[in-house]
Design goal:
- With 475 residues, this protein is of the alpha+beta class.
- The protein folds into two domains: 41-68 and 210-475, no CATH class; 80-209, Super Roll (Bactericidal permeability-increasing protein, domain 2), CATH 3.15.20.
- It contains nine helices and 26 strands.
- It has helices spanning 2-39, 69-79, 182-208, 211-221, 304-315, 379-388, 390-394, 397-403, 413-425; strands spanning 59-68, 83-87, 96-102, 107-111, 114-128, 133-150, 156-169, 174-175, 178-179, 226-229, 234-237, 240-245, 249-251, 254-263, 266-269, 293-303, 319-322, 325-337, 340-349, 353-364, 369-377, 407-408, 427-430, 433-439, 443-449, 453-468.
- Strands 1, 12, 13, 14, 16, 23, 24, 25 and 26 form a nine-stranded mixed β-sheet that branches. Strands 2, 3, 4, 5, 6 and 7 form a six-stranded antiparallel β-sheet that branches.
- Helix 2 packs across helix 3 (182-208).
- The N and C termini lie far apart (143 Å).
Length: 475
């Protein structure tokens, strides 16, 4: 009996020892878990990075081109002077020698797709009557008509024909009762002029109405970056995609057309962008319509790196306390998820790890800034913090981050607007060719996210005109 009691006591002692050992082990496990929880290392998964596809708005730039008819007329008169045609032999079958000299200025007008000229000539005529030679002076005005087409390479091809004549002073060719009919002389002059004067007019129009050069210089100039706010190092790159023009027509004393350019312009911050300027124009094609306004959709961007730099300057090292708990912001990372910007905020202290917030970037017109609206913890972050660090949900950290994610633009829109307007007041494309324009007010039409940063669409409307005041330098 005593042995049984003793054995029972030993069993009780052994069980008690085992119980104490288990309690010790459980305590150590619990202490370890509490220690781990005290550090609160997060295993929150990072929200996926993704971007919506936005179709870029194409800008349509309509540029009226105006070449004054009097300037074309002046140019032709400078090039065609003195003796225009001379036949100095009787041996070519017509028994007549003729010298034709420009009497006064050639006049021209545009009629639909035709250029019409009047060429006043002073004539010296000598005719072999067989019995002798007679000579006379005369004055005649020849009428020419030129049809023109624009080739694929933007050169103008013309074909000039004589359509009639009018004597200002008829020749008197007679001797010993013999005379030469004036009509015969007029027709002869007409036929000879068709070849010599018509060809000369064709050459002058082709040489001086150089659409390929005029439009080619304009096309190349559209590729050149334009400084629109040098103090902010901002450049406007028009980035033209294609070009066409409406048919030439005469209007208000000028030969007019409208260049139609499709472009994808953007504003770039930093050093002058390096662009590839094409050496030739795209093939010519006619464009319908006669709109003469422009609608620009400019793109500019705040990169994530720049946005992070701005945010980090304000937020890194910020400490947030709630009772006995405290955290410090160690890092900020920004990226996009659809229409929202994701803010990955890494913390240290009572909570070690990242928390994630999302919000929608919008343009604040009054402040000239990009603000992040509806910034809040992601659902997964909220649920995790609710279970492990609920005090963070009650802290001011969210509002502090939101206040420092409102990015003032690196440049002033009003300044860029005034610079663009100033550039277009009197922008010289080439010597004698200027681009003049009147633009409306710049406005942000959209803000969205790309893989590189926060993209802004800036809209502006207005009118521009390409004025040609000098085809060749005046003498």
């Amino acid at each position: 009996m005593t042995a049984l009691v003793y054995k029972g006591c030993l069993d009780l002692q052994h069980n008690h020892a085992n119980s104490l050992h288990m309690k010790t082990v459980n305590f150590l496990i619990l202490a370890t878990l509490m220690s781990i929880l005290a550090c609160k290392s997060t295993k929150l998964s990072q929200p996926m990075e993704q971007y919506d596809r936005f179709e870029e708005k194409v800008s349509r730039i309509n540029i009226p081109v105006s070449v004054k008819i009097e300037e074309l007329e002046r140019t032709i008169n400078q090039q065609i002077e003195g003796i225009i045609y001379e036949d100095d032999t009787f041996d070519d079958g017509d028994k007549m020698m003729v010298k034709a000299e420009k009497k006064s200025n050639i006049s021209l007008r545009i009629d639909s797709q035709m250029v019409k000229y009047q060429v006043p000539l002073g004539l010296w005529i000598k005719y072999d009557l067989g019995l002798g030679k007679v000579s006379a002076d005369a004055e005649i005005t020849l009428d020419f008509s030129t049809a023109f087409v624009v080739n694929d390479n933007w050169t103008i091809e013309t074909q000039t024909n004589v359509t009639g004549y009018e004597w200002q002073k008829k020749p008197r060719l007679s001797m010993a009762g013999l005379s030469i009919p004036v009509g015969f002389v007029g027709n002869l002059i007409l036929n000879r002029s068709r070849e010599f004067i018509g060809r000369s007019l064709d050459e002058q129009v082709a040489q001086n109405l150089r659409l390929d050069t005029l439009i080619g210089d304009t096309w190349k100039q559209l590729f050149e970056p334009i400084p629109v706010a040098p103090e902010y190092n901002a450049w406007l790159v028009i980035n033209p995609q294609k070009i066409g023009m409406t048919p030439l027509e005469a209007k208000d004393g000028a030969l007019e057309s409208i260049l139609k350019v499709d472009a994808l312009p953007t504003i770039i911050l930093g050093d002058k962008p390096q662009v590839d300027i094409p050496q030739s124009l795209p093939p010519f094609h006619y464009e319908p319509g006669a709109d003469d306004d422009i609608e620009l959709h400019l793109k500019t961007e705040i990169s994530y790196l720049e946005a992070e730099r701005i945010a980090k300057n304000q937020l890194l090292g910020e400490r947030f306390e709630q009772g006995k708990n405290a955290v410090t912001i160690e890092d900020i990372q920004l990226y996009g998820q659809g229409n929202n910007i994701v803010v990955n905020t890494r913390l240290s202290g009572s909570y070690n790890g990242s928390i994630f917030l999302t919000g929608k970037p919008v343009f604040n017109e009054k402040r000239g800034s990009i603000d992040v609206e509806d910034l809040n913890f992601t659902l997964e972050t909220r649920n995790f913090l609710f279970k492990s660090a609920g005090w963070l949900l009650k802290s001011t950290i969210k509002n502090k981050i939101k206040d420092n994610l409102n990015f003032l633009l690196d440049y002033n829109l009003g300044e860029i607007e005034s610079q663009i307007k100033e550039q277009l007041q009197d922008f010289e494309v080439t010597k004698g060719t200027k681009l003049k324009g009147e633009l409306g007010k710049l406005g942000i039409t959209n803000a969205y996210l790309t893989s590189d940063g926060i993209r802004l669409d800036i809209g502006i409307n207005g009118k521009v005109k390409l004025q040609v005041s000098e085809l060749i330098p005046a003498k």
